[in-house]
Amino acid sequence: LIELVEVTRVYPLPSGDVVALDRVSLTIHEGEFVAIMGPSGSGKSTLLNQLGCLDRPTSGDLFIRGKNTREMNDRELTGLRLNTIGYIFQRFNLIPLLTAYENVEYPYLMKHREPDYTGRVDSLLGMVGIDPPMAAHKPPELSGGQQQRVAIARALVNDPALILCDEPTGNLDSVTGRQIMEMLAELHRKGRTILMVTHDAEVAGFAERTIVMKDGRVI
Amino acid sequence: LIELVEVTRVYPLPSGDVVALDRVSLTIHEGEFVAIMGPSGSGKSTLLNQLGCLDRPTSGDLFIRGKNTREMNDRELTGLRLNTIGYIFQRFNLIPLLTAYENVEYPYLMKHREPDYTGRVDSLLGMVGIDPPMAAHKPPELSGGQQQRVAIARALVNDPALILCDEPTGNLDSVTGRQIMEMLAELHRKGRTILMVTHDAEVAGFAERTIVMKDGRVI
Ligand SMILES: Nc1ncnc2c1ncn2[C@@H]1O[C@H](COP(=O)(O)OP(=O)(O)OP(=O)(O)O)[C@@H](O)[C@H]1O
Ligand SMILES: Nc1ncnc2c1ncn2[C@@H]1O[C@H](COP(=O)(O)OP(=O)(O)OP(=O)(O)O)[C@@H](O)[C@H]1O
Ligand SMILES: [Mg+2]
Ligand SMILES: [Mg+2]
């Protein structure tokens, strides 16, 4: 499904270049459930951003279903991101002025060009334990874990084939965290490809294999 | 040191009042190391904000060293927050336009009215594994765990007697997380009072006792 070939990502900063990814090569097959672990600052989020086409390499190539992303125009990439890929960001990236409901509905609106009359948004929010009264709140009015769960529902609203999660249970108690992992495991059983950054070995245990990073390299 | 008596905190929202804390009474003694656990949304962060005088109760009373906070004026409360209490927020709350170094120095500046010539800021950043080149970066240029570590250094810069941590290791790999916990344990050995929200039982193990919350009550 996804192939990285010698991908390097450098962040040029006044105080000196940061090599976040250092000639990383790896292949993710359709339907895999892969965990990504490694010390803080080792490049996990940067790797996920590359795999999810949110960011381009400084050098090296990224192939999606055999096609090199360098040959894709913005429309193609946007289509990929909207229809095929769901993101659960480490910092959630919810829109503070929209309610939880509106945050989850947003990608649906962008894809279907009309509000959700199917009840999908409500049902997804219910699955992550956010009831309708809570869904009317804005992110600043929600607890950390409630925000995280809204971010998870949003990532799934367009039923993406590829799901990218960056510390999906970081702010959740173990019971809620387990429920979320069961949900992801179920989606995996139904054929979705899941790439998950986590520092929790128990959470990594839900994956089929684990990629370990260190200083921008896969070890 | 701190005493809560029948503290209730209600968030009034258009969709209906949220009772985040429901008649909570508890006492924290000088030099204790207390963990606070409970499901997502159970009121842990709200409780921490009350204990740290960042927020006032809707009803009930809060006593610091025997004095009722209702009788404290803003100057007194500000003094408390600046000199006595250190906060590690769940969302870090770093200032995105300042470098990591400047973020940590900020409370020092506010307290001493002059820059840090003692090297304390550098040494604290070193203790949390942020070297000088990294300290020149701004929060958006740092990984999640690096931001968390900067937030920890900032909380400690004025050597507070009371340290409040809201999920201090949520974004850290287990090795770095352990280093942070050793640091907090050391501060506790030296007499600091530590109140720590965590959903990680292993992290809670560093504390002397655990308060468990559910639906805004201590159970
Ligand atoms: N600023 C706010 N305005 C309105 N409601 C709020 C606000 N902050 C929190 N709440 C609500 O109060 C309740 C308790 O929130 P709190 O943040 O204390 O929970 P928590 O235990 O820290 O959760 P988590 O483990 O998810 O961080 C939640 O239901 C939340 O939606
Ligand atoms: N936008 C950015 N600009 C500059 N440097 C960055 C940026 N984002 C990340 N970095 C740097 O790149 C390196 C890798 O960051 P990354 O966020 O991928 O690490 P991570 O493994 O996700 O860490 P964590 O576990 O702490 O979230 C870090 O040293 C970080 O400081
Ligand atoms: Mg990260
Ligand atoms: Mg919280």
Q: What can be said about this structure in brief?
A:
By secondary structure, chain A is α/β, with parallel strands linked by helices. Chain A contains eight helices and ten strands. In chain A, strand 9 (209-214) and strand 10 (217-218) form a beta hairpin.
Q: Helical residue percent of chain A?
A: 25-40%
Which segments of chain A are poorly predicted (pLDDT under 50) over 5 or more consecutive residues?
none
The total count of helices of chain A amounts to 8
The molecules bound to the chains, other than polymers, are:
adenosine-5'-triphosphate, magnesium ion
- Structural class by SSE content of chain A: alpha/beta
Task: Give a written overview of the molecule.
The structure is a homodimer of 219-residue chains. With 219 residues, chain A is an alpha/beta fold. Chain A has one domain (1-218): Rossmann fold (3-Layer(aba) Sandwich). Chain A has helices at 44-51, 74-84, 100-112, 120-127, 132-135, 144-156, 174-189, 201-204; strands spanning 2-11, 18-28, 33-37, 59-64, 67-68, 85-88, 162-166, 193-197, 209-214, 217-218. Chain A has a six-stranded mixed β-sheet, sandwiched between helices. The first copy, chain A, has a four-stranded antiparallel β-sheet with strand order 2-1-4-5, covered by helices on one side. In chain A, a hairpin with a 2-residue loop joins β4 and β5 (67-68). In chain A, α3 packs parallel to α6. One magnesium ion (MG) binds at residues 44-45, 90, 166 of chain A.
